[in-house]
Automatic annotation (TrEMBL), chain A:
Principal location listed in the UniProt entry: other
SUPFAM superfamilies named among the record's database cross-references: Periplasmic binding protein-like II
A Pfam family per the record: SBP_bac_1
Chloroplast as UniProt keyword: no
Designated name of the protein: Carbohydrate ABC transporter substrate-binding protein
GO CC annotations, alphabetized: cell envelope
Family: Belongs to the bacterial solute-binding protein 1 family.
Signal peptide limits: 1-35
Domain of life: Bacteria
Keywords from the named record: Signal, Transport
TrEMBL record, chain B:
Chain segments annotated as transmembrane: 12-30, 71-92, 104-124, 152-175, 210-232, 258-282
Protein known as: Sugar ABC transporter permease
Gene Ontology terms: cellular component: plasma membrane
Pfam families per the UniProt record, alphabetical: BPD_transp_1 (PF00528)
Keywords: Cell membrane, Membrane, Transmembrane, Transmembrane helix, Transport
Residue stretches in coiled coil: none
Predominant location: membrane
Domain of life (superkingdom): Bacteria
InterPro entries the record matches: ABC_transporter_permease, MetI-like, MetI-like_sf
Domain ABC transmembrane type-1: 67-279
Amino acid sequence: MPGQNPSWSRRLRRPVGVGLAVTAILSLAACSSDADEGGKTTITLSMQNADVKTADPATWAIVEAFEDANPDVDVEVSGQPVAEHLQSLSIAAQSDTLPDVFWVYKANAEEMLEGDRLMDLSPVLDELGILDRLPDSTVANYTADGKVFGAPYQGLLTGLWVNSKVLADNGLSMPKTFDDLLAVARALDAKGVVTISNGASQSAFSVWQFLVWLDRFGFEDKADGLLDGSEKWDNPDFIRMYEHIAELRDAGAFSSNVSTQTYQQAVDQFLQGKAAFLDSGVWAASAIQESKVAPDVDFWRGPEFSDGVGEQNIVMNVASAPLVVAEKVAEDDAKLDAVKDFLEFYYSDEGQQILVDNGQPPVTDYEPKLDPVKQSVLASAIDEAQADDVTSPESQPDLLFPVDVSNAIYDSIYGVIQDQLSPSEAAALVQKALDNQ
Amino acid sequence: MVWVSSPWKIALMVFPAFILFTAFFIYPVVYAGGYSLTDAAGFSGAEFVGLDNYLALAEDSFFRRSVTNTLLILVLSVTFLVPASFGLALLMQQRVRAAGALRALLFGPAIVAPILVGLVWVFILDPRVGLLNHLLEPLGVPPVQWIGSDSLAPYSIAVVFIWASVGFAMTIFYAGLRLLPAEVMEASSLDGASGWQQLRYVTIPMMRETIGIVSLLLITNVFKIFELVYMLTGGGPVHSSETLVSYMYFVTFTDQRYGSGMTIAMVVFVIGALTSLAYLALSRRGRLA
């Protein structure tokens, strides 16, 4: 037996010693909390972009500035594409291993709040004075059962970016109404120019302009009814809206490869001056600013409809999906303090100016400082949002519903754009998803 | 001499494989089966809903479309891929110049990740910027929606799948042909069999096992097509080019309807298993006949 053999004993002594030493080191490492590594408190931030540094430079810059200002806190940033991100969160929620701070859809956040997985942020945001600086509609949007479950990640200012040079080169002027836009589409199609650049492949959600159209056909008044089942999506107003999309399609407004190009390819199409309008939002401002078309680009909130319902002078300027904090953060004082510091920085004037410097509008009442030349593109969007008599809905329509209903809304719009669904079928598709809730 | 045929020794040796098989096959299938009977939606609790998810699938037009597309790709693949790869293997067996390079060229797509295959073919088939339409344009052919329409997209996916798989299937056939006993072929030649007669009455009957294996692999691979759809069409327009697995992915992860997604997974499992078993049964009947 090895124990009775002196040579075995000698041979084993060194590896056993090394093993014990390694075990001791590992044990010590395991005993120390991640909230206390090297004297630093670590918080995790999980986002909905695979490469946060390049895809979401505003968040990345805020984190870097925060770490510089708070050397005792380390923010571990991770990111995945939206579907994978949500999948990971779902698994983490079940195993109670959620990241400390993360981006998530509002509907999912409400489910997590119900399952006691999220912190009620009202005391924290109140203590830090953040609640007073957020629009009331945003706070109301992120409140459930009297608890504030999230804070706005970024602003969702969406519309159509316009290349006025493309219009001018084709003898066209800036449209104001839907009929104007239809005439522009017909004229551009005759010359082989794409009117509105969209991309449905792997980005079915990229229909922001048409979500504003819903509000121009009375969505805001119908929202509660749609949520409680007393109102139908396949109502005459919405069907009329889908009919207008079909009219645009028939006028040749969309690219012939709208089905196969991605949103990013649609952006590239616009940046190369091959399309007159880009259906997007303020997040595209930086890319446009750095492109050759920047001097010719303006922001347009979209057409007004003579047969619309209610207010037509609308711009979609709302909070996007929220940043939320995991409930377990409240159990660790050091971590809670670090998260508070992070939120305080994020919504400070300094943090908001970093958002602005990276092409995002502020989400608080902060008045941004804009360079009229270097940030002309972003400035045009903010000007449009702050124009006289312009109002904004409280929320983007898709963000009020569970994810499968939101997807049905996107499918219904792209279904008409791609001539796969008639206006009635498109409206019925969403109604079916609502019926399944 | 140590005898290992005693029952407990056999059980002991089978045990590790049994554990792995249970952990990585039986457990996931049972788990998915359980979930398919719930309304699990990710973040909230799951409630038992019986067969509701299965009944809902019957009314889901997108699901029916994904079944049709998968079967279409299966039929096209079995019809064209097996004969084409077998023919190529026969060709490779002849003394052709640069046979090694040709084999490598044909096998190439099989070692490229399907996601890259999809990416490459997007640049060929895209209706606006694709190479194919640019080549057809001078011939007066108007732009064709190879992957942008509901009518042609499933066929395009099948063509790309066949292109990506033909080298792999050819290699298996080629290996099978190389293993055929030379004396049998020589004897048939001496008996005066023509090349066609040799192929019809000697080669194909002796290759039946290999044909069966290739067909089975093909069937299971068709039921796993995902990346090609994801890259080529994204399942669009409006889910009209989804296959079973890509639609399952959409329902499970994009729609966050985990219960419904697992229902589709179970259906894929059952259809795949039944198709494979039916094919094996037919092959066995053919062998015995």
